[in-house]
Amino acid sequence: VETRRDHTRVMRPYARRRVRALGRGGLSGYLFKKGSPSCGPWKVKCYDGEGAIAGENGVGLFAAAVRSAFPLMPVQDERGLDEPNGRESFLRRVFAYDCWRRWWGERYSHPRLVRFHRAHAPLLHASNPALTDALGEVLETARGDAARTVLQRYGSRFLDAVPAGPAVDWPDTDAGDSPESPCRQCRTSAFGTLVA
Asked: Is residue 177 predicted with pLDDT exceeding 70?
């Protein structure tokens, strides 16, 4: 604001290049700088041509590019980590998103989605029975829909089911689960007790 120089034209192509590079890195969460005109994920001050505040509900250019490219990925600013519940909620969502991202990659099929749902159903139900039912409805109506649409719909509801506060008591599942089972990862991180 002090220099009155507009960096938008330079920042937009940089943000696109950087987001493409980040996409190759297997991100599962992103921490932004509160209030930054480039990296603030929300509540960024906007200024008019005269340098006066025109609004306080903007999004930084780079943060907007990241959120657009990875719409389900958990994001937070550093102030959101100040409170223990905010920190724990963010970390739980990062672990859940990581499980979701690694499970899917680019390979979608309806039977695969059903297997993912069955592997996570006990955890989902213990955390949020209503959302578990909503996920079941997504499964029932998913056949024939575009893969991207189904994954977006199911994925957003799956992440919404991650508990925001203290860990839920999750039920025991099959002892035969393999250590790399997504439900085991989620049991011990996204839906279970986080290790400090």
From this structure: no
